[in-house]
Amino acid sequence: MSADRKRISLGASLVTWPLVLVIAFPLLWMLVTSVKPQTELFATPPSLIPEAITFEHYRRLLEDTPFPQYFANSVIIAISTTILVVGVSVLGAYSLVRFSYRGRETLASLVLFTYLLPSVVLISPLYLMLVNIGLANTLPSLVIAYTTFSLPYALWLLRSFMAGIPEDLESAAMVDGASRLGAFVDVVLPQALPGIISTALFTFILAWNEYLYALVLVNSDEARPLTTGVMNMLISAFNIEWSLLMAASVMMSVPLIVIFAFLQKYLTSGFGAGGVKG
Fold first, then answer.
1. Average pLDDT, consecutive stretches of 10 residues, N- to C-terminus, the chain (278 residues)
2. How far apart are the first and last CA of the chain?
3. Domain 61-266 is classified in which CATH homologous superfamily?
4. How far apart are CA 266 and CA 163, in angstroms?
């Protein structure tokens, strides 16, 4: 490595690491606070390193509160929404890119326009619709609600990925005897894999962190997700359970961290896959 490249690398590191530390500090403080004894929470001055470490807050959270039920609800809602949105958006994006029909571009523009609408605009009609079909205050109601604002953007995002896949690859596969469905599965899906994974991550994060729809559409503990459940359980007008809140925040962050760590290596693995005949 030349001297100039070393200096550039050193300068980039000097700029990047302070930014990383600033961004990561609230997460570190959250983690430290979650294992501090109750007596150290409001110590003056506050200390970053606790004198003693305790997991009592996690025990209380898991054994004495409905947190496990809220966690399970969020997992079910987020996974169901992701599967539904990705499945529909993959087929929809392929249709918008590969098939010619009247109003195709208009439909694509309307899909994007739907995503630009504020979330509050859809709450009232969604609530009335869910009440009329008997799904109000249930987990499926939140899956339907989250799909309404996740699907338009997911469809538009995957449309861009699909448009970048050469149609010649499908044509070559069909010349070799593959059906349209076979070419879609064996050629298009591997090529679009980075986009599909990115869309799945985007959808999962939206469904995991969403608060407004969950607050309006669900009011029973049996169907509450983490966002509204933790708020209802630990925060009131007169008291905030800081120790339990920090422990809950850490546990709420774990699934997202694990998913990113696991799927990051797959974000570029789809490029070129399916482009070579086996």
1. 68 79 85 85 76 88 92 95 94 86 79 78 87 89 91 86 83 83 85 86 91 89 90 78 88 88 64 40
2. 39
3. MetI-like (1.10.3720.10)
4. 20
Tell me the two tokens of residue 5.
């490249």
List C-alpha distances in Å: 22 to 9, 18, 28: 20, 6, 10
Backbone angles phi, psi at 235, to 5 degrees: -120, 125
Complete DSSP assignment for 15-59 = HHHHHHHHHHHHHHHHHHHHTS-GGGTT-SS--SS-SS---HHHH
**Where in the chain do CATH 1.10.3720.10 domains reside?**
61-266
Q: Which residue has the tokens 């899906």?
A: 189
Task: In whole angstroms, give the CA distance from residue 259 to residue 1.
Answer: 35
